[in-house]
Predict the 3D structure of the following.
Amino acid sequence: MLDLSQFFIPHIVEELRSQVAELTGILFVICKNLKSDMEKKFFGQHIASKIVVSALAGNLHRSRNNKKPLVMCFQGSSGTGKNYLSDLIASHMFKSEKLKKSQYHVIQGQTEFLLQTKINDYKENLHSTVKSAIKSCDTNLFVFDEVHYMPMGILNILTPILENNDVSIDSRNSIFIFITNTGYTSIIEKYFDLWVNGFSRENMTVEDFDTILLKSAFNEDGGLQKSSIIDSHVIDFFVPFLPLEKVHVEQCIEAELKNLEKHLDSELKSEILRIVAFGPEPEKLFATSGCKRIKQWVAAKLYSD
């Protein structure tokens, strides 16, 4: 009997190569566009920018060979861009609103786990939600917001999924991001320690903060406290979000005006800056709420009588 496989194998191999090349090109564009957007709209976070772009690029390029999903923990004070960056990632991963709606999942720590008496129900519902989403589509972005408000231990039920040890699903192509304020005081203390020793902000690296962030997440109140997720080392990157300085708040003001296609004179911009509280004493180097309320203040100045 004539063996036809020799005629078809080269064709199949060539087709696979073509598909891989096309996918690589798409992934390159996604990461390139995300990086470009971050440079224009995401300020003061050179460490987070570098980690996230590199982590996503590496994860996407080796997606067929991943052993587990990509897991990141965004840590820092309010208004430093943790949620903004998560949403920016989602916008570049899912180009249509339909895809974003079905594959971008945000779990709110402050509102979804209110009653301690229902902790077991919350665990089961959380596990079922994540598992069902992955069964429906293996590429998802899960964002757990305000983890510091979650009850201790509630996230442990996700450990097998994050390790990709749940044989009923393949979680390798999904991405998990935990957002928390835990560690922000340690970030500020470490920043000042480096600063007084001659390090500029731009010379600070993830290595300066990684250990203190891990310890903070594990020891401070919240969903990651004493968590098996940390004990099992499934979090790939603890990402520090540095406190924002005056120059970054100014950049946020300019970005919002550009987004609205509006203009404010220098005096009105200065009035906004005078509203922003800076601390801690005596240096008053950092905006205590980052850029969190800049949109509202810009709008107020634009449309005031």
